[in-house]
Amino acid sequence: MRIRPRQSLLELWRATVDYSYRDGVWTPAGRAEPNSTSDAEQLLCLMYPASQIAAFKLDRPDETARDLREALAQLGDAVEIPRRLIMAMRAYMERYTAGANTPVFAGGSYLEPRVEGELLTPEQRRLDVVDSFSMSITLSLATLGFLNVFEKVVRRPALLAQIAELEEMASRRLTAAMVGLLRSFTVHSFAPDSPAGRVLCQTVNQRGLPPKKIVAELHEALAQVRAGLAEVTLGSGGAEELDNEEHLFECGWSWGIIRDAPEVPTAEPLDQPVGVAVRRPFLYFTVVALDGILDLFSERTRILDLLTEEQQGFMRALQIRWDLTQQYWSILAGFGGERWPLEDIPWRTTDGRESDYYSLLVTSVTVEALVQRRAVDLDLARVGRVLEELSARGRVTRRALEEDPAVEMHVPGVRLNLYGAEDLPSGQRGPEVVWPVADFATALLKRTIRVASLAGGTELRDRLLRLTDDVWDHLHLRRLTSGPAAGLWDDASAAFPQLKPEDQAPSWYLTERVMECLVVAATMINEAPLRNDRLMVMTQDLAIEADHLYSQELLRGATDAGPVGRRLDHLGRRLERARAVADSRPGTAIAILFEVLGELDELVAARRSRQGDPE
User: Fold this and answer.
1) What is the pLDDT of residue 615?
2) Beta bridge mates, 355
3) Closest CA to 106 of 32, 23, 36, 170
4) Which run of H or E residues covers position 230?
5) Which of 29, 253, 299, 466 gives the lowest tally of CB atoms within 10 Å of its CB?
């Protein structure tokens, strides 16, 4: 694999700090005007690797690696780095907190009018969005985990007081973000003969069956999901949408808080804004929500005991929605058992829109479902072929044509209509709003690495790692190479020469997602290597031969304290080492055994030469 996660993350850290830390202050700035999502992405470029990779930890100054200190030298030495990060995170929490200690999750500058030239109203730009909820969950957990460890080595009362205040702010933001996701979840039901119903049936019908047969099979396949959703009540569950059992349905997250979503009871008063989002799930925001929720029940969150009792209750409610949503979309993706609907690219959403990007989003959900059920290589190979086709169709691994429409998935990106954002809580009406998403390449890379990490066969893993290399080459080409943001992303014109060069300010949206890919790659590298059955057999055969020849040498009396005896002692230890690693790393064991066999042969040849024996 050509990706070098440590080196690439260090380069990203250095570039992030050099751009962001100016005149002794962390400065939220980039291609987009500062907003609650972009500023969180900027901070996560440092905080997420530090929370997910043990070798990148910054919460114990005396254990901070030298190359980490060098990459973050702009922040100070190993002692100053944690303090400067605390100041930056505190500034973020304060900046996005309104009166009465209410956390803010506004879309801000990431929101755009659907019609060029129109102006969004200030009220529209203040609308909460799922992207901000999800990023805030990840950032809050990274902050709480960092403080949990760092405070144990702090002695100064003033600094301990700052840590306590930041912990309270981060925990409050975490609670508000979880509540926001509970109020953004939705179920959308529709008649089988409605436009949405016909689209869904056509999408999953890969066998040419009559519509009534497809509807019956869908009801049967989704029965458990329907039953689970009927029990969802906290927040915007939408259980009433399932009253008509003849209707089909879809579930997931809308773009923001659902219109008329009830408030979620909380231990402390929490201002919960009125929602305006339509009761319809969006694939993009569903994937974003699922990724953020996953951090809530991670091993790190559990071991450090980062959640309060109330937050644990919200986590369980979100985990139920996470499980049901994963089941729903993975059932649709593989419906029918023969040719999967996922393999029929592009995917069509129930509002009639179709795009390769939607296929990638459904693949993203499917991959995480495969992780949960420890899928076999046969299923992983099918997903791998989908990823390969998407990489080619998306012009990531194939040259783009002039005026190629596939390039638009990268720049300006897929523009998602935020239905309902034009009808504001105040009763006023504003322009229609869109949310541009331009993460096709990073989403492709992240899921390819995930599938490769699951592959049990060396041939499948090698194929997926070669795809990983190709996608990484594409992304690496898009790094900014000059100016104050050199080393960050994104200059798509470097990969697509027909485009005009991008703004030289960094896109934290894409840079943060590149960072996530590098963390996923590092996680895969930290896992034990694959065990190959053929290598296991070869290891056993070589070990038997080496042990037999070694025993023969001992039997011939080569046990004195001279050079030959010492050499045999060394070979005996090497044999023990080979046996110790044979189960987990048979290839390594084979290399050791070849070395042992070679040296044993040298001893045999030397003895025969002394004795004048023929070979």
Assistant:
1) 53
2) 347
3) 36
4) helix 223-230
5) 299
Per-residue tokens: 544: 């038997």
The token pair at 356 is 């390769």
Report DSSP state, residue 395.
Answer: T
The closest of 481, 603, 609 to 551, measured between CA atoms, is 603
Burial letters 288-297, b for 16+ CB under 10 A, else e: bbbbbbbbbe
What's the pTM? 0.89
Question: Does residue 13 sit in helix, strand or coil?
Answer: helix
Q: What is the pLDDT of residue 330?
A: 95
Q: Residue 75 — pLDDT band, cuts 50, 70, 90? A: very high
Q: What pLDDT, in 10s, does the model give residues 111-129?
A: 999 999 999 999 999 999 9
Domain boundaries along the sequence of the chain: 540-611
pLDDT exceeds cutoff 70 at 613: no
As a whole number of angstroms, the distance between CA 365 and CA 447 comes to: 9
pLDDT score recorded for residue 612: 65
CA angle 485, 131, 172 (to 5 degrees): 100
- Whether cis (ω within 30° of 0) applies to the bond prior to 506 is no
Kindly state the DSSP code that residue 503 receives in the 8-state scheme: P
pLDDT digits (tens, 9 = 90+) for 419-459: 999 998 888 899 999 999 999 999 999 999 999 999 888 88
Q: How far is CA 560 from CA 2, 546, 551, 571, in A?
A: 49, 20, 15, 15
Q: What DSSP string runs through 117-183?
A: T----HHHHT-B-HHHHHHHHHHHHHHHHHHHHHGGG---HHHHHHHHHHHHHHHHHHHHHHHHHHT
Widest CA span in the chain? 105
Instruction: Decide if 433 contacts 256 (C-beta within 8 A).
Output: no
- As to burial, measured by CB atoms within 10 angstroms (0-12 exposed, 13-18 middle, 19+ buried), residue 257 is buried
